[in-house]
Every structure is written in C-alpha cells, then in structure tokens.
Design brief:
By secondary structure, the chain is of the alpha/beta class. The protein has eleven helices and ten strands. The strands form two sheets. The chain has a six-stranded mixed beta sheet, with helices on both faces. A four-stranded mixed beta sheet has the order 4-6-8-9. Helix 1 packs parallel to helix 3 (about 85-105), helix 3 runs parallel beside helix 4 and helix 4 (about 120-125) packs parallel to helix 5 (about 150-160). The longest helix is centred in the middle third of the chain and has 20 residues, at about 85-105.
Length: about 270
C-alpha cells in the first residue's frame, strides 16, 4: 500500500485484481474537495487501462465514509468578487464529471461504506455499480436543511431508487439506515462491521474471475440501454450481444461449458 503523509487518498493493490481507493481525510470527514475529486479521477483514469486491475473498491477511513462537499470551502468562496459563482460551478462540474467517470469506467466500481454518507457522499455511493455497507451505516441528502437542495446528488439517487423514495430523502433530508437503504435499493446489502470487508472481497474476487471483455461490454451496455425505450433497448442489446458473441472469450466460455471444464479467459 502506498502512503504519503500528504495523501488524502490511499491506494491499495495488495489483493490480486482489486484496486482499493481509500478516502483518508477523516479530519475533514472525507469531504469531496477539489483535490480529493481530482485524485479519484486520476486513479480511475489509470485503472481503466490497467489490465491487471479487474475491480475497483472505494472505501474510507473513520466513521464518515464521505460528507460531501466541504461547507467551509463553499462559505469562503463567497468572498470572491463573483460571490463564489465560478467556484461553485467548477466544484459541481468537477463532481459531476467524477460521478460520470465512475459510471463510464470499464471496470466495476464497488462502494464499501462503513459509516455516514451524506449529500455528494451519498451521490458517490449511488454512482457506484454496487454498494455494500455496515449495519450501522447511515445515508442522507440533507441539503434542503441548509437551504442548498441536493440537486446533483439527486441525479444518481433518482437513478437508483424510486421517484417517491428519492423525493422523500431529498425533501426531508432525513437519515436512512442501512436496512432502509437496502430496501429502497440504494445499496445491495449490509453486514456486521467486522464482516463487511470480507463480504466485499468475496464479491470483488468473484467478479474479477470473469471474462473482463464480457464485463466491460456488459457494464457499458447496461447504462447505455437504461435510458432507451424498450424497443430501442432490444435493438441495441441485440447488436451488443452479436458483437460479444464474436469475441474469443465468448467462444472459449461456451466451449468450456459444453466440455464441463473451467474457461481459460484471454480477456479479448
């Protein structure tokens, strides 16, 4: 594991095929500062083209997974000549770019939440492909409580949970328990704190053992078809499956199944 005393994001590649991006700025509640978001983006960019990495896990140090944006920074920006307008626009645009990068990353991204995730921190959880939490974790989009509606977190939230559940979180700012977060599909599952990491490793390892070209094609197709009409989605995915069928791994996987043996993936 690489650790620099000035780092607020730690990188762990100790588990084969798995990259762990560890938010390590507990004194600022692991806020999504410009520095933190830029470091996340840079590492996601590198991971996307690193063939040795199959799955990315985002976790955090401390009892706050991520508190969203730093409200002190937002307040200080109001002293600028434009009352902070350019700062706010750059901040929220950078955050939106990070969330889209997670969705568009060819590698599956898993949120491992052991603590509190609020505002853009909740957005980060919702943007990941999978999310697992400890039993005591809590989630909220509380911007409405301070006069700043969580409009950008709303994008990811509303694409994971139902409209009514998303609006309830956004309009009340109330806490949502891990149990409730699972019920509304904000997370996949929750575990006792001492079992969370093992559970995430288990599913990350399972995914990393699959054909990476199939996972890449499938993840991209999932998000692409999601916004299409039913008929357009079937036209699109029929073409995707045709292209997938022509890949070497599809040929190998089908042959291995028929031969009752384990496949030998070439990831192409």
């Amino acid at each position: 594991m690489k650790k620099n005393t000035n780092d607020i994001l730690r990188i762990d590649k100790s588990q084969k095929g798995i990259l762990r991006l560890i938010l390590d700025d507990p004194s600022n509640k692991n806020a999504l500062s410009k520095k933190m978001m830029t470091m996340l983006k840079n590492n996601l960019t590198d991971a996307a083209v690193d063939n040795s990495l199959k799955v990315i896990v985002i976790e955090a140090v401390g009892d706050v997974f991520c508190s969203g944006h730093n409200l002190k920074d937002i307040t200080n920006a109001r002293d600028h000549e434009d009352n902070g307008e350019s700062y706010f626009m750059n901040l929220f645009t950078l955050c939106s770019s990070l969330m889209q990068m997670i969705v568009n990353c060819p590698k599956p991204v898993i949120a491992e939440v052991n603590g509190v995730a609020t505002a853009a921190g909740c957005q980060l959880v919702a943007s990941c492909d999978l999310a697992f939490a400890s039993d005591s974790s809590k989630f909220a989009t509380p911007g409405v409580n301070i006069g700043l509606f969580c409009s950008t977190p709303m994008v990811a939230l509303s694409r994971n949970v139902s409209k009514k559940e998303a609006m309830k979180m956004l309009l009340t700012g109330d806490w949502v328990s891990a149990q409730e977060a699972k019920r509304i599909s904000l997370i996949n599952d929750h575990f006792p704190e001492d079992q969370l990491k093992e559970a995430v490793i288990k599913i990350a390892s399972k995914i990393s053992a699959k054909s990476q070209i199939a996972v890449k094609i499938g993840k991209q197709a999932f998000y692409d078809q999601y916004e299409m009409s039913l008929s357009d989605a079937y036209v699109f995915t029929s073409r995707v499956m045709t292209e997938n069928s022509l890949k070497n791994d599809a040929k190998e996987g089908i042959s291995a199944f028929l031969d009752k043996r384990n496949p030998n993936w070439s990831d192409n």
